[in-house]
Specification:
The protein is α/β, with parallel strands linked by helices and 181 residues long. The chain contains six helices and six strands; from the N terminus they run βαβαββααβαβα. The protein is globular and about 40 Å long.
Length: 181
C-alpha cells in the first residue's frame, strides 16, 4: 500500500508516533509530511519522533512530491493529528501547501482521506467544516479513545484510536481489542 501520513500543529503527536509504530515500511511505501508547526508540537510533546527506517520525510513547502498529482497512484492519506485550521482549509478547497493539495487530490480522485482531529470542544464552524468533508468523501476519525479494553497506560489509550485508523486503512493489527473476542 502507498500511504501519505501528514501531521499538523495540533496536540496529539503520540497518535502519530503510535501509527508509525504500527506500520511496516517493508510492507508499505510511507511518505511522512510535516506542517510548519508540527515539528515544534512534536518536540514539546514527545521530545523527538521515532521515524522508522524506510519512511520518506517531506516538509509542507515543496510541491516536488508525487502525491500532489492525481496521476500518481496512492492508496490513502491520514492527517494525524489534524488541526481544525487544516481541516477548515481542506473543507474550503485551499491547496497552497503539500498537505492541503494532497488532501484535495485525494478527495477529487475519490481516494481514502482520513482526518484525525483532536480538538475539543467544537464550535459551529468546526462542525460545518466536518460535515462539508464528510459530504466530500473524507473519513473523520476524531481522536476519541475507547475503554472497553481497560487500557492501563497512556500508550494503550492512544492505541485504541490508532487501531481504528489501521482498520480504516485495512492494515492488520493483531494487538487491537475486538469486542466479543
Amino acid at each position: 500500500m502507498k500511504l501519505v501520513i501528514a501531521t499538523t500543529g495540533a496536540s496529539g503527536s503520540m497518535y502519530l508516533q503510535r501509527l508509525l509504530d504500527g506500520l511496516n515500511p517493508a510492507e508499505h511505501e510511507i511518505h511522512l509530511v510535516f506542517s510548519g508547526p508540527a515539528r515544534q508540537v512534536i518536540e514539546t510533546e514527545l521530545g523527538a519522533l521515532r521515524i522508522p527506517a524506510g519512511v520518506h520525510e517531506h516538509d509542507d513547502r515543496s510541491m516536488n512530491v508525487p502525491f500532489v498529482s492525481g496521476s500518481a497512484r496512492f492508496d490513502a492519506m491520514v492527517i494525524v493529528p489534524c488541526s481544525m485550521g487544516t481541516l477548515g482549509r481542506i473543507a474550503a478547497g485551499t491547496s497552497d501547501s503539500v498537505i492541503l493539495r494532497t488532501a484535495d487530490v485525494f478527495l477529487k480522485e475519490r481516494r481514502k482521506l482520513i482526518l484525525v482531529p483532536r480538538e475539543t470542544p467544537w464550535n459551529l464552524i468546526h462542525a460545518r467544516n466536518l460535515v462539508t468533508l464528510l459530504e466530500a468523501g473524507a473519513i473523520l476519525l476524531p481522536a476519541n479513545p475507547s475503554f472497553y479494553s481497560r487500557p492501563a497506560t497512556v500508550e494503550a489509550v492512544v492505541d485504541t484510536v490508532v487501531a481504528r485508523i489501521l482498520d480504516q486503512l485495512g492494515v492488520e493489527n493483531p494487538g487491537a481489542f475486538r469486542w466479543g473476542e
